[in-house]
């Protein structure tokens, strides 16, 4: 079980690193955020399995993760229609 915990923590750190390094495109940022959500879901599942608790909170967490992904994709479509690309530099309102 400890290998799965280390692997899920590694997934979480790589998702955060990918989020920090891919600041140029909004789509890549959303994808790395979804990877972080999946890693947190795996860690939460392992935690609940170790202590033999109920999995109801996993359903709530997964629902919130799906809502976050849908909201991000809606923002991406709106910004693509408004600005024509998904570069973060073009979304700056100070220009």
Automatic annotation (TrEMBL):
Superkingdom, natural source: Eukaryota
GO BP, one annotated term: ATP synthesis coupled electron transport
Pfam families the record matches: Oxidored_q2 (PF00420)
Record-level GO cellular component terms: mitochondrial inner membrane; NADH dehydrogenase complex
Sample GO molecular function, one term: oxidoreductase activity, acting on NAD(P)H
EC number from the UniProt entry: 7.1.1.2
Lipid bilayer topology: Multi-pass membrane protein
Cellular localization per UniProt: Mitochondrion inner membrane; Mitochondrion membrane
Catalytic activity: a ubiquinone + NADH + 5 H(+)(in) = a ubiquinol + NAD(+) + 4 H(+)(out)
Predominant subcellular localization, coarse grouping: mitochondrion
Keyword annotations from UniProtKB, A to Z: Electron transport, Membrane, Mitochondrion, Mitochondrion inner membrane, NAD, Respiratory chain, Translocase, Transmembrane, Transmembrane helix, Transport, Ubiquinone
Enzymatic class: translocase
Transmembrane region(s): 28-48, 55-80
Role, per record: Core subunit of the mitochondrial membrane respiratory chain NADH dehydrogenase (Complex I) that is believed to belong to the minimal assembly required for catalysis. Complex I functions in the transfer of electrons from NADH to the respiratory chain. The immediate electron acceptor for the enzyme is believed to be ubiquinone. Core subunit of the mitochondrial membrane respiratory chain NADH dehydrogenase (Complex I) which catalyzes electron transfer from NADH through the respiratory chain, using ubiquinone as an electron acceptor.
Family the entry assigns: Belongs to the complex I subunit 4L family.
Name listed for the protein in its UniProt record: NADH-ubiquinone oxidoreductase chain 4L
Species annotation: Dorcus tanakai
Lineage: Eukaryota, Metazoa, Ecdysozoa, Arthropoda, Hexapoda
């Amino acid at each position: 079980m400890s290998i799965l915990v280390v692997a899920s923590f590694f997934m979480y750190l790589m998702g955060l690193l990918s989020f920090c390094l891919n600041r140029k495109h909004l789509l890549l940022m959303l994808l790395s955020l979804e990877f972080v959500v999946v890693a947190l879901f795996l860690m939460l599942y392992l935690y609940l399995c170790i202590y033999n608790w109920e999995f109801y909170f996993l359903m709530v967490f997964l629902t919130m993760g799906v809502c976050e992904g849908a909201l991000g994709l809606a923002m991406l479509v709106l910004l693509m229609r408004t600005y024509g690309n998904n570069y973060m530099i073009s979304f700056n309102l100070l220009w």
